[in-house]
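To the wet lab folks,

You asked to see what we're planning to order before we commit. Fair enough. Below is the target structure as tokens, and below that is the sequence we designed to fit it. If anything looks off to you, flag it before the synthesis order goes out.
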């Protein structure tokens, strides 16, 4: 009998040791006992990080929606699967039972089929956080189409890049979306994007905000009438364990976004097992993850992980500040939320509003709290613990990535003693290593290094869509025979891990990964800009904010700098989305460079952070004099 739910720290260690000693046997037991397979695997695992290639449960057949929906219909058909809380607090919440979810997913699946979508086709989903988003994801999985969800805050250019990269045939979107007091014209963004996407044949449109929109003849159709007519059952496509389930784009430090490919069997096993243990979910619980399904957190811990466990998972359409900063707590009270999972940036923003607002709400249903997406600072951790968890609800600080598919390092609540700012211990099956710059593993405790993983786990992304070489270069080239995470970490005296942040040119702003290169490329498109460099600097709420150093082409011309700043941010909004806007822009005449012409971001980061005490040796720079100049501009003015 596998230990599907871990209850004591001794049990954790026992299971952890077993998972490392014989990973195949460990995962096989879990896969065997807790899931519905149409055919069992011939081989649990084959892998080679040199190629790189990883295959779990090869030869097995399944459909993930049978595991997430069908099998629950008999045991908990009338239980709420998805609890939808709309943007407007006066609009009633919607309880979608497992039975109803089955029907809705089947109808949507049949609509997709009727539009010619087959196993292996890519479908882009660009929707707000409404039930149709989860339903569309599951409908694709039902028929074996590969979903590519694009966060509905991305611009038309960013959307087009993602649609074209994976050659999506069909897009599911809505007439618009609500975001607090605002409405956003999503369909207009899709229309703009599709001007450069010849691969898209059909667009299905959900009516959400009842706005007047353009429907392109022959391409666009309202979804609801099609759903009404569709048959309410749909035989699931039988998938191989290693068939792709979805593509999800994440920013790289250079180049275009990386379409991380996740496959079916291993992803299901890992997200379900981690969900069960990390959130200690019990049958009557109401679980809420505040992420958007446009990110991996939403894929794994709003949709697949919770539903594979027959859980009730909340989907919230709105924002934490609407109609006021009590909204999260209002929802917790209203739906008696037991597990609450959010990002440090949200915690910091809510903490800033003070504790008075909390007094209005009954938060006693909360049993545990989670955080994800970026390092949580000590102050935010304590605020969360004191005011939301009332010091009785463990905080699970979960470290993981789009690429890892599921949580990798995290306390198990009530099992692992927590420590503020520490993600603590690896999940069973996860073998972390800290590496030094010479490529050697740093053994022992009280050490710091680059965080790698030594052995595959079931939900590791298998490739980058269309670019396996980039997959190899990005994750498997820095350290031999290791998956390199791009993060730095330290291991304390008892072996707990603390993630210290990115060691590459990815900056995490409000929990969103942003590559510097794509932002710089966008800025450089402004006709007045010659060159630019983006760095991150600490920010009270967002964790990091973006600082742009910009060189103008014609320095003699006295253009209005404030207008230029606005124009630069406008270009970034158009090319990427508002999440990538710069907080500060400094115009400068030059950038510090090495003799080989590389921008010294380390120095720029320090200056932006107002920390010039230890800039290191600048004499080897091509243009050392520029450092003083920039310091004068930035520090004196600040
Ligand atoms: O730097 C780490 C940070 O977020 C990165 C992954 O971002 P993304 O792929 O967007 O996935 C976010 C949600 C899983 C990581 O490389 N990160 C994520 N969780 C934590 C974290 N940093 C510190 N502590 C965490 N708990």
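Sequence we intend to order:
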């Amino acid at each position: 009998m596998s230990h599907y739910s871990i209850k004591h720290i001794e049990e954790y260690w026992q299971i952890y040791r077993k998972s490392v000693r014989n990973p195949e046997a460990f995962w096989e037991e879990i896969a065997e006992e807790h899931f519905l397979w149409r055919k069992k695997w011939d081989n649990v695992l084959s892998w080679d990080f040199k190629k790189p290639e990883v295959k779990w449960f090869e030869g097995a057949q399944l459909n993930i929606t049978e595991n997430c929906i069908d099998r629950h219909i008999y045991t908990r058909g009338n239980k709420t699967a998805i609890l939808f809380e709309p943007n407007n607090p006066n609009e009633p919440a919607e309880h979608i039972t497992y039975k109803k979810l089955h029907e809705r997913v089947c109808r949507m699946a049949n609509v997709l089929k009727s539009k010619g979508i087959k196993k292996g086709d890519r479908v882009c989903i660009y929707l707000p956080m409404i039930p149709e988003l989860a339903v569309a994801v599951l409908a694709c999985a039902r028929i074996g189409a590969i979903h590519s969800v694009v966060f509905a805050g991305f611009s038309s250019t960013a959307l087009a890049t993602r649609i074209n990269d994976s050659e999506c045939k069909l897009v599911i979107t809505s007439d618009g979306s609500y975001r607090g007091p605002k409405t956003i014209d999503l369909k207009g963004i899709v229309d703009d994007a599709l001007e450069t996407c010849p691969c898209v044949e059909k667009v299905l449109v959900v009516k959400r905000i009842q706005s007047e929109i353009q429907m392109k003849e022959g391409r666009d159709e309202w979804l609801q009438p099609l759903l009404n007519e569709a048959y309410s059952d749909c035989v699931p496509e039988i998938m191989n364990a290693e068939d792709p389930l979805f593509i999800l784009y994440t920013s790289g430090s250079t180049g275009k976004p990386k379409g991380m490919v996740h496959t079916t069997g291993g992803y299901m096993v890992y997200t379900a097992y981690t969900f069960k243990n990390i959130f200690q979910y019990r049958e009557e619980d109401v679980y809420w993850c505040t992420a958007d399904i446009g990110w991996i957190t939403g894929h794994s811990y709003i949709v697949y992980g919770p539903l594979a466990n027959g859980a009730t998972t909340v989907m919230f359409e709105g924002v934490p500040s609407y109609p006021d900063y009590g909204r999260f707590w209002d929802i917790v009270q209203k739906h008696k939320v037991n597990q609450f999972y959010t990002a440090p940036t949200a915690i910091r923003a809510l903490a800033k509003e003070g504790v008075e607002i909390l007094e209005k709400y009954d938060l006693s249903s909360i049993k545990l709290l989670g955080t994800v997406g970026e390092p949580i600072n000590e102050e935010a951790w304590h605020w969360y613990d004191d005011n939301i968890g009332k010091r009785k609800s463990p905080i699970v600080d979960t470290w993981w990535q789009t690429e890892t598919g599921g949580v990798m390092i995290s306390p198990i609540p009530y099992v692992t003693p927590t420590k503020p700012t520490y993600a603590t211990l690896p999940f069973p099956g996860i073998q972390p290593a800290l590496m030094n710059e010479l490529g050697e593993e740093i053994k022992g405790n009280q050490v710091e290094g680059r965080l790698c993983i030594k052995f595959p786990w079931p939900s590791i992304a298998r490739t980058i869509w269309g670019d396996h070489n980039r997959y190899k270069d990005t994750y498997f080239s820095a350290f031999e025979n290791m998956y390199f995470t791009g993060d730095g970490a330290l291991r304390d005296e008892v072996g707990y891990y603390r993630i210290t942040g990115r060691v590459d040119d990815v900056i995490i702003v409000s929990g969103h990964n942003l590559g510097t290169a794509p932002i710089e490329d966008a800025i450089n498109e402004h006709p007045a800009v010659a060159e630019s460099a983006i760095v991150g600097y600490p920010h009270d709420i967002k964790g990091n904010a973006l600082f742009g150093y910009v060189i103008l082409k014609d320095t003699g011309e006295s253009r209005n700098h404030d207008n230029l700043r606005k124009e630069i941010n406008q270009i970034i909004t158009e090319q990427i989305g508002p999440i990538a806007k710069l907080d500060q822009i400094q115009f400068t005449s030059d950038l510090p460079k090495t003799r080989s012409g590389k921008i010294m971001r380390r120095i720029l980061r320090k200056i932006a952070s107002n920390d010039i005490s230890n800039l290191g040796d600048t004499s080897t720079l091509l243009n050392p004099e520029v450092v003083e100049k920039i310091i004068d501009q930035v520090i004196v003015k600040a």
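Structural context that might help your review: Residues 99-244 form a domain with the Rossmann fold fold (CATH 3.40.50.980). Residues 250, 296-297, 372-375, 397-402, 423, 485-487, 499, 502, 508, 513 surround adenosine-5'-monophosphate-propyl ester (CB under 6 Å).

Thanks,
Computational group
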